[in-house]
Amino acid sequence: MSAPSHPLLLRAAQVVTENVEREKLHPYPYKEDKMKILMRTGPGAWSDAVNEYIRQYNYRDFDVAPGNVTLGDVKFLDVGSLRDGLIKHHFAHSWHED
């Protein structure tokens, strides 16, 4: 969950916009359209924004990977949170039809 207009979410939206604009001039080198989508607007764009946020605090992504780390007003949960049902991951190709 997030507060409305949280800087991290706004940055993620900005990364997506930048990726779309950049791809108009320099298409992604991936042959599969699905991979292009993942990098342009999906987890790739989200990861870019999150990693940028983490670097603002002089951390690296693997520093927060174990979880239970709070940077600013963002709490990074551990991977066990998926297993324990605290959060749900929707990456089972549920977002597209084959």
Describe the structure.
The chain is 49% helix and 6% strand. With 98 residues, the chain is mostly helical. The protein has a two-stranded antiparallel ribbon with strand order 1-2. Helix 1 (7-25) crosses helix 3.
Please tag this protein with its features.
single chain, 98 residues, mainly alpha
Q: What's the gist of this structure?
A:
The chain has 98 residues and is mainly α.
Shape: globular
Which sequence of SSEs, written as H and E, runs from N to C? HHHHEEH
Radius of gyration: 15 Å
Q: State the separation between the terminal residues, measured CA to CA.
A: 30 Å
Q: What share of residues is helical?
A: 40-55%
Low-confidence stretches: none
Number of distinct helices: 5
List the helices and strands and how they pair.
Elements: H1 7-25, H2 33-40, H3 43-55, H4 61-64, E1 69-71, E2 74-76, H5 80-83
Helix pairs in contact: 1-3
